Amino acid sequence: MSLIVGIAGGSGSGKSTVARRIAGSLAASQVAFIDMDAYYRNFAHLPMEERRRVNWDHPDALDMDLLVSQLELLRAGTPIEKPTYDFVTHTRASRTERIEPGLVVVIDGILLFADERVRSLCDVKVFVDADADIRLVRRIRRDMAERGRPLDEILAQYLSTVQPMHLQFVEPSKRYADVIVPRGGHNEVAIEMLVAKIRGRVAAQQA
Hints:
Blueprint: E1 3-9, H1 15-24, E2 31-35, H2 48-52, H3 64-75, E3 80-86, E4 91-99, E5 104-108, H4 116-121, E6 124-129, H5 132-146, H6 151-170, E7 179-182, H7 188-206
Parallel strand pairs: 1-5, 1-6, 2-5, 6-7
Antiparallel strand pairs: 3-4
Helix pairs in contact: 5-6
């Protein structure tokens, strides 16, 4: 049975960097890496203007049932067809990505610990913490560079949904974490300790 490592934290906290660092520290054959962002619901039935107004930071925007079922499959050693999300059009792409099971499954997402079913599947729960101003700057840079969004749209979304949902859902979920990592992906000591612990768990499973 796979060890599931969940990495949560606010948007721009550095959680994806921590997740990639942990996954990259293990042999490729040992780890499966998935991102919660891939599991947004398909809003293709809505006009573009309405899609832009969807509250992407609320748990209801995510297909939790699909995420739970695919995590359970990976844990049981069964490959999955992970959805692919297009953040420019706000729709689920037609293609999927085949993910082979590994001894370790690493998953990251802002709302990972907000859902009790997902939370209970995570054997190791890590919350990556960062100051709000740092998270906002990182989000602006990412959305402009990777998603082609103008600054005024990014700031409007941050004030209307990102910040309120962070306070309502993300920050309170920190209490479920086994480990809280301050300073995100730049905290070398915390990441090294996590990697050592996970490697130890994997070695114990294989013994």
